[in-house]
Amino acid sequence: MYVILGKERFNDFISRLSEMRRLFAPAVLKGYNNFAFEKVTSGKEIAIKYIPTILPPKKFFIPQRETLLEFNIAQGIDAEAVVEYEPMTIFGVHTCDLAGIQCLNMVFSERPKDYNYLTRGSKIVLIGLECNEYCDEYASCNLVNATFPCGGYDLFFTDLGDYFVIHVNTRSGDEIIKEIGSFEKVDTSHINELEKLREKKRKVFGNEVPIEGKHIPELFDRSFGASVWKDLEERCLACGNCTNVCPTCYCFDIRDEVELNLESGIRYRVWYSCQLEPFAKVAGGINFRKERSARQKHRYYRKFRYPVDRFTRFFCTGCGRCTRTCMAGISLKETLNDLIKESES
Amino acid sequence: MEKMVIKDSSYRIKKAKILHTKKMTENEKFFEIVLKSGESLDHEPGQFVMISLLGIGEIPISVCSSPTRRDSFDICVRAVGKVTTCIHKLEAGDEVGIRGPYGKGFPVSILEGNSLLIIAGGLGIAPLRSLINYVLANRRDFGMVHILLGCKEPKELLFSEELEQWNERTDLYYACTVDRAAPDWAGNVGLITTLIPGVDIEPVRTFAAVVGPPVMYKFVIKELLAKEIPERQILLSFERHMKCGNGKCGRCQIQSLYCCQDGPVFNYEQIKNMSEAF
Q1: For domain B14-102, is the CATH number 2.40.30.10?
Q2: Looking at the structure, do residues A191 and A232 belong to the same domain, yes or no?
Q3: So what's the pLDDT on residue A182?
Q4: Per-position DSSP letters for A75-130, written without gaps between them
Q5: Model ipTM?
Q6: A31 lies in the same domain as A128
Q7: What total number of domains does chain A contain?
Q8: Are residues A220 and A148 in the same domain?
Q9: Closest Cα partner for B96 from B129, B126, B56, B63?
Q10: Which segments of chain B belong to CATH 2.40.30.10?
């Protein structure tokens, strides 16, 4: 089902939405082209046109730091597994980030299920927003089929000039529409406009890398020993920025923290990165990915090869964040291009 | 922020009590543990548990007792880091937290009806002791059983009383070697690979179970292949620093495999093309 929201009513819609649950949406940050999902209460605070935020919405699904266990060791051991969550709505999620959340959903629903993630995720209402234009040269959403919406949202907004056309995808999306009310009905001219926009996008969102998505797994099958990884080794600073900003990177460390009374404490998980040196180290000091080349390679295989077998999809959503954030100028599209060149030579 | 208790959380720990400890070597200590709920751990040989010292941390440790003993289980801990060093300070009566058992162990029902060549290097004897004691408790179900054991020096030998018993048994073949002998050492000296060629087996009906330090695998596999044991029948257990045990945190990943869920026991055919495994 589709409905129409006139632009003149957008601010009112956002205010009403923020009264229902805490509302987060893309907002402008200081600095050139910097955006972040922030708490908002009015439409004026929202950047309708934005390029991918610094951190993807995964920060709401897997907080950087999250309590797993609360314990007391005053008399024996007493521990309880807990989840911290907050009902919220996230407005303005682009298709790349919706794809990222779909990837995380798959990982954390795989048995043994992660109830911390699933409980928190079930309290989040997702409202997508279509990219009418290509965000910048770092994106590669078309390569990984993330340019157009394919589920993963409750409502999906497309900006068509004077109005938004809204796809209502779920019952909780429908409840929002019913509660806020006064949407207009959609007619064929609206749908024709939507189709026209998507047709235009199909032309503009061209092939970013000279390979078809279906051939990428084979490319990686041939590239485990490629010299491209050595080249990355020479540039990579092993800072972990690329994995922090990645919408599908979810690796974590688990740590304990005790209160000053030395009786109560928590066990929590915190984002970790396969790019950091100790990540694959075991007791006795052996490191199974000691070289930065092995660690960068691992990152790329975790995006383009390993999840294909496990989940039948890429874990790259083409958002371009890893390239935008890399201090050493390592570019995902450039790496793919180099792998193609090397495999053909 | 709201908070709720999750009963089904995979991070929930079971309370357990240490029944008995024994200092085995300078670095290794043995613990017999019982779950306070009275339930059995119900593990397979080769599986591991996450042992918690709340406030200090949690680490993966192989279970070293046979699942045929159901009222308690054993672990053998080498002091190498913060958590293991603290675990060494525990004594009978102290409490620990347990999660698990986790992973795929040795597929004992598949091993039935075959001969076994069990190869342990150093601390690798710990998970293999679980398999050995399982096999001895069900001895009739298996063909020939060979146990080859290697370690650096005689003073590092673990479970020495049991080793003597194994040595005396007529229903298994036992050999032990050390890299460096002590003055009173009368046994073999040399790497564990030197024991393999002399073992008399029928390769197509033999499964090899190998656990040892990472450096050992390459050389042992070479000898086993030379004996013509099929790749699928060479079982290897890998050591990685599992943090979650649920195939999520990424710490134990060997290329596309999660050691904690897909392993830690793999057959050689599964992982022979994975350079990160070795």
Answers
A1: yes
A2: no
A3: 79
A4: SS-EEEEEEEE--EEEEEE-HHHHHHHHHHHHHHHSSSP-HHHHHHHHTEEEEEE-
A5: 0.92
A6: yes
A7: 2
A8: no
A9: B56
A10: 14-102
Nearest-CA residue of chain B relative to A75?
B95
Give the residue from chain B lying closest to A81, CA to CA: B12
**Residue A255 to residue B244, Cβ atoms within 8 A:** no
Which residue numbers in chain A have pLDDT < 50?
none
- Are A124 and A262 in the same domain? no
Question: Among A182, A204, A226, where does a domain finish?
Answer: A204
> In the CATH hierarchy, which fold is given to the domain comprising B108-237?
Rossmann fold (3.40.50)
Residue B201 scores a pLDDT above 90: yes
- Confidence band, pLDDT 50/70/90 cuts, at residue B243: very high
Query: CA A156, CA A47: separation in Å to the nearest integer?
Result: 16
pLDDT score of B186: 87
pLDDT the model gives residue B274: 92
Distance of CA B117 to the CA centre of its chain: 15
Predicted pLDDT of residue A11: 95
User: Which of B1, B55, B251 has the CB atom closest to A279's CB atom?
Assistant: B251
Per-residue model confidence (pLDDT) at position A204: 85
B159 φ, ψ (degrees, to nearest 5):
55, 45
Residues of A in contact with B52 (CB under 8 A): 77, 267
Q: Once rounded to an integer, what is the mean pLDDT over residues B150-158?
A: 93
Of A204, A223, A241, which residue constitutes the final position of a domain? A204
